[in-house]
Amino acid sequence: MNSILLTLAIVISPLLATDMATAQTIGDITKALGSGNTSSLAAMMDTEVELSVLGQENLYSRDRAVQQLSSFFSANAPSNFSQVHQGSSKSDNAEYCIGNLTTSTGVYRVYIYVAKKGERMVLQELRFDRE
User: Fold this and answer.
1) Fold for domain 2-130?
2) In the chain, what is the greatest distance between 2 CA atoms, to the nearest angstrom?
3) What keywords were assigned to this record (predicted)?
């Protein structure tokens, strides 16, 4: 009986660790968005990030994406992020989150996409649209 439980724990623990890491990554991203913390966002970004702000979409290097986000947050000071929906893509290697970012100029619908790269989940896409 103990060997069955041990085997089951060995098989399930990597799956739970991946789910917990993804949830933590999404939670860390939403927290950073809600406070406008571009340093925290940069630490979670892939080397290139697809960024779309009010229809202007481009693939940016991490540094350039941080500059774009800093400009957006300067013009639209964030005060809160509320998650509306979270899910996974068809593969087990990606997650997404949709939420509302409350700022000094109004509410924006934000789409977050993270994917597994190596052993960690990285932010690969951010979209900001007027609510």
Assistant:
1) Nuclear Transport Factor 2; Chain: A, (3.10.450)
2) 61
3) Signal
